[in-house]
Amino acid sequence: MDVMPLERFYEINEPLSIDTCPKCSKKVELIFNDYKIKIDEYTIEVKDLPQLECANCSHQVLSSKSKQLIMYLYQECKARNQLGVQTTPKKLNKRYGFCERFNFNYDYRDYENIPGLTGLANDGFLTPVFFKKEALIYFMHHPEYELNLFSESYGVFGYKDEFEVPFGLNKNDKLILWLVDLEKLDDSTLKYLEIHNVASDHIIMDTSFYDAQLNVIWSEPIIERQIINLRNKAYDLLTSKHGIDLHHLEGEVIKSLEDIEKPILYNENEIKSVISALHKILIEAVNTKALKTYYESVVDKKEKSYKEWGSIKYYEFLLTQFSAKPVRELIAPLYLLNDLRIIFFHLLSSEREEKLKQNVITTLGLTSFNIKEIYLRLNERLKELFEELTIALEDI
After folding, report:
1. Fewest 10 Å CB contacts: which of 96, 229, 306, 350?
2. Distance between CA 230 and CA 253 in Å, rounded?
3. Beta strand pairing call for 197-198 and 42-54
4. Residues 178 and 247 in one domain
5. How far is 396 from 391, CA to CA, in rounded Å?
6. Could you tell me if 207 and 219 are in contact, meaning their C-beta atoms sit under 8 angstroms apart?
7. Number of domains comprising the chain
8. Is residue 97 part of a domain?
9. Are residues 40 and 136 in the same domain?
10. Measured between alpha carbons, how far is 46 from 278 in angstroms, rounded to an integer?
11. What is the pLDDT of residue 63?
């Protein structure tokens, strides 16, 4: 229990609540915890009080609404000459005047306590409503809807020319829409969403959706696009600094970009098409003739098999020329990308398939062939590879 004079409580709680931790500057999220404090001689205990907790260091601060409640209870104790109070805020199940024809499950306490949501009208405009993220599958594949993910946790979906609304994805894989945006949707879309509506988990601030909508902070593209952007930057640097033009089959590259969509469920069907597209762009669409010419111009004692090398082996050679980091570890994700393409698209003996899978598991430090974990770690490693190549080329 904290013990402090009123002046100290004012000092700590005078600033407006913000979405970052005052100690470490990482994101906070709304939680409901018991709270006990002694201000002057008055002890105040509140059950399930809305608070903001840092996901990084676990430091907790009061939301603006909770600050008001604590001060109200302090003033009541003082006025009644009562040394303490114990209370539990009533959950009012408050409803707002948007999309009232559907009984969507949402928590008014999110609107009242999450920084930045409460407007002057106090009308629930920006109340977050939560859904299973599987709802996005329907919009992704329905021919009359369009869905775009700009980043790992922010996107939009729309229907013909009738509406377009933003959405977020939080770390618990919940889909988030604003209550006011539900008002824009037609009944058939709302009926579908209603099936996937779930209770709030209050996690919203550590998303690109929140940052873009509330803080006007635009997020980085999805990691798959970041990898391709880094690949393009590295190619441009190789051309401008060393005269090595690696661009090849650019028309096919542009076409393959259409298959780069962020997986929603991370099942095999979703991931296979992205693995294929990444393989085409990063491994197949490489001008190996230009790399062979460069190799011949800088290496005196050439390996006997260099004329048969594929693009991965030439990438490996480039890294030995420009990067001081261990090449074997850097180049590994390209070999794994190739292994996964073989696993997904080739007819293999069970022994051959198992050997390839085990190589993927071991190289990525996993314990099983978990498709989602493999995909996420592979993309992290691919990004590291092309980041390092780009940085190394910029430093030369």
Report:
1. 350
2. 14
3. unpaired
4. no
5. 9
6. no
7. 3
8. no
9. no
10. 53
11. 95
Q: Indicate if 280 and 180 belong to the same structural domain.
A: no
Q: Return the CATH number at 36.
A: 3.10.20.860
Token pair in block for residue 125: 């405009």
For the cut 80, the answer to whether the pLDDT of residue 121 exceeds it is no
* Rounded Cα gap, residues 258 and 274, in angstroms: 10
Using the predicted structure, report yes or no on whether residue 95 has a pLDDT greater than 70.
yes
- Indicate if 199 and 237 belong to the same structural domain: no
Enter the DSSP assignment of 106. Answer: B
Largest CA distance in the chain: 93
pLDDT in tens, 60-69: 999 999 999 9
Tell whether 99 is covered by a domain.
Answer: no
Q: What is the mean pLDDT of the chain?
A: 94
Structural tokens at position 316: 């490996």
Residues 10-41 pLDDT 10s: 888 888 889 999 999 999 999 999 999 999 99
Helical ranges in 184-222 per DSSP H: 187-196, 208-215
Same domain? 388 vs 274: yes
- With respect to residue 101, please indicate whether it lies within any of the assigned structural domains: no
Residue 60: domain span: 2-87
Assess if residue 95 is contained within a domain: no
Same domain assignment for residues 286 and 364:
yes
Q: What is the pLDDT of residues 142-164, one digit of tens each?
A: 889 999 888 889 999 999 889 99
Separation of CA 252 from chain center: 28
| CB distance 145 to 193 below 8 Å | no
Expressed in angstroms, the distance from the first to the final Cα of the chain is 57
Same domain, 353 and 384: yes
C-beta of residue 280 within 8 angstroms of C-beta of residue 308? no
Cβ contacts of 393 within 8 Å, gap of 6 or more: 234, 237, 238, 241, 322
